[in-house]
Amino acid sequence: MHDISLVEPTLVRRSVILDDDAVRILDRRTFPFDLRFVTCTTYEDVAVAIEEMVTQSSGPFFAASAGMVLAARLAERSARVEERLAIIDRAATRLTATRPTNNHIRTVVSMMAEAARGLAPDHFASGMQGIMEDAWEKRFARNRRLGQNASELVEDGDTILTHCWAEASLIETLAATLRAGKRVKVVCTETRPYLQGSRLTAHSVAEMGIDVTVITDNMAAHAMDRGLVTRYMTAADRVTLSGHVINKVGTLQIAIAARHFGIPYIAMVPAPDRHAATPDQVPMEERDGRESLMCLGQPTATPLARGWYPAFDVTPPEFVGAIATGEGVFAADALRAHFG
Predict the structure, then answer these.
(1) Is 136 helix (H, G, I), strand (E, B) or coil?
(2) What is the pLDDT of residue 9?
(3) What pTM was estimated for this model as a whole?
(4) Are the beta carbons of 202 and 164 closer than 8 angstroms?
(5) Domain coordinates of the chain in residue numbers?
(6) pLDDT of 183-200, one tens digit each?
């Protein structure tokens, strides 16, 4: 029996914890084999943790906003308003630069930096924490709406293929699907080189009592050909107003295969980026190529070879069947009219 009470497993609701002295971030590089947290006492520590992939998907949204509270605690020690805001601005710039393709970081950090200008000096840090907590609750609420909207595209008996770790968007979608009495299965690509799919997604889906199967990244098209997949659903780090989906590298090749086999691809994002009309306006992160020569800290390739690691790829709108957002479900070519 499915336990639909597990709407937000460990990785979603308790992955970033703000304490009185630090931000503690669940280390997703080792989960679920080792449940440990990385302790960050400064916003610089938080920035490094994000860059080093301690947290991924929407995790950086929570980590970066908590990092802004650490910056506010530091800034509160300064007597002059200009000094306090200068610290906040430096923190915002540093945190935004950690994962430039991930739009969620920029959105929350810039909002908090602007809100800091209206805070009273004697409640500066507590005021920033209140702003962070409000942003978190709004994010959770929007994810619930997104999940409800996306679940309406899922049919009873579907087997959903997903790539990488879609976090709350996938979990909320599955929870709403189960509440509607629909039975589903999930297939996860392992998602090299950090194996987010086989560790994070598969574990969270299994926590909900849903049948989950892990496949290697090169099996997706074959699984579709064998009739083992009926729907392809991923999150998106950013969606442009032109309907292009920017997500974990590998999303594009699976979308191409899905179109060939007549399998609908549904991308899930809280909202498209109103500031990005096309992919040309999105900075695409390229990580150290040596990461592609490793897996879970172990070498997987000859030291004589070079590695290449573009973190994201771009799926054109013609390969996207629908985009589920917190405001509803849209065709890829209808985003500009609604959100532009």
Answers:
(1) helix
(2) 63
(3) 0.92
(4) no
(5) 10-142, 152-339
(6) 999 999 999 999 999 999
Count of H helices and E strands in the chain?
A: 12, 17
CA distances from 9 to 90, 170, 207, 209, 223 (A): 33, 12, 7, 11, 27
CATH architecture of the domain with residue range 10-142: Up-down Bundle (1.20)
Annotated catalytic residue 217: no
* Marked catalytic residue, from 19, 237, 273, 333: 237
Q: Are the CB atoms for 319 and 258 separated by under 8 Å?
A: yes
Q: How far is CA 151 from CA 155, 170, 211, 265, in A?
A: 8, 9, 17, 13
Beta sheet of 16-18, edge-to-edge order: 16-18, 23-26, 37-40
Angle between helices 43-51 and 59-75 (to 10 degrees): 160
Residue carrying structure tokens 């710039």:
93
Q: Which of 120-124, 199-203, 258-262 has the lowest mean pLDDT?
A: 120-124
Q: Is-contact 162 214, C-beta < 8 A?
A: no
Q: Coil, strand or helix: which one is 87?
A: helix
Residue-by-residue DSSP string for 236-258 = -SEE-TT--EEEETTHHHHHHHH
The helix (H) or strand (E) run that includes residue 287 is strand 286-287
The amino acid present at 99, given as its one-letter code, is R
Q: Which long-range contacts (CB under 8 A, 24 or more apart) does 122-128 make?
A: 124/72, 124/75, 124/76, 124/84, 125/69, 125/72, 125/73, 125/75, 125/76, 127/72, 128/68, 128/69, 128/71, 128/72
Which of the following CATH numbers is that of domain 152-339: 3.40.50.10470, 3.40.50.620, 3.40.50.2300, 2.60.40.10?
3.40.50.10470
Sign of the Cα pseudo-torsion (58, 62, 68, 71, in order): negative
> What 8-state DSSP symbol labels residue 178?
H
